[in-house]
Design goal:
Blueprint: E1 3-8, H1 15-25, E2 30-36, H2 47-58, E3 64-69, H3 73-80, E4 84-88, H4 92-108, E5 113-117, H5 128-136, H6 147-156
Parallel strand pairs: 1-2, 1-4, 2-3, 4-5
Length: 158
């Protein structure tokens, strides 16, 4: 079984993230969407909320499992017996950071491969930070979020 981990803060999960999950489902038998606690990033939403958002956003994919984690990604990969990490690349600006993280992970666990997937062009500009900024100013985000996630966030009054 080919199991891959798609890690991130997912603060919140967006249509771009779901597009990456959809693409990964055509390649791997199981995708573990791993929601990082990321206290140092001071997320807008709690870890529990972000896990719930990810579960709601990926419910239509039977081979996807959502978990939370707060340790090193290489340790999580070892625990899950996964040797593949999925990362999304929207633009060249993402590449340098992602490449550095991929090399760092490989230095800690040499058999860990990082696969980079690009979202559909219509989602290439979507990021969690863009969504958070728009939310802070009360702007329209329904087109940037999976419908269930949008309803959950709207229900919070965000």
């Amino acid at each position: 079984m080919k199991r891959a981990i798609y890690p991130g803060t997912f603060d919140p999960i967006t249509v771009g993230h779901v597009d990456i999950v959809r693409r990964a489902c055509t390649i791997f038998d199981e995708i573990v969407v791993a929601v990082a606690e990321s206290k140092s990033k001071r997320p807008m939403f709690t870890h529990e909320e972000r896990i719930a958002f990810a579960k709601a956003a990926t419910a239509q994919f039977p081979q996807v499992r959502v978990i939370g984690f707060e340790n090193l990604l290489v340790n999580l990969a070892e625990e899950l017996d996964a040797s593949i990490i999925i990362r999304g690349l929207r633009a060249v600006s993402d590449f340098e950071y992602e490449l550095q993280m991929g090399y760092a992970n490989a230095s800690l666990k040499p058999d860990l491969e990082t696969i980079y997937l690009m979202p559909n062009l219509e989602h290439a500009f979507v990021s969690s930070s863009v969504v958070r900024t728009i939310l802070r100013f009360g702007g329209k985000v329904d087109h940037l979020l999976p419908p269930k996630v949008y309803e959950m966030i709207r229900g919070k009054g965000a």
